[in-house]
Structure prediction request, 83 residues.
Amino acid sequence: MERFVGRCVGDDVKGLHLMKAGDNIGTTIFYEKVGFKRWKCNMDGNADGIIGRKPGGAVCMVMNVEAEDVEAAYADVDYGADW
Prediction:
């Protein structure tokens, strides 16, 4: 994963995102360890109040490959009222 992210930085990619099964705890642990965080928006109309989860349970995870502190990089992002 480190080599992949390094290649993305070299190719001037600004960020990465992925969708994962919401009930797969192992992938959550793995992706958080390599720098992904849940996308800080509600994607199911606030039906369950859980950020980053779409209807049906899939979870969106993101990584800003330019920032050293991924969580700080997404702290000020305004996703708009429609999300």
Observations:
- Residues 2-75 form one domain.
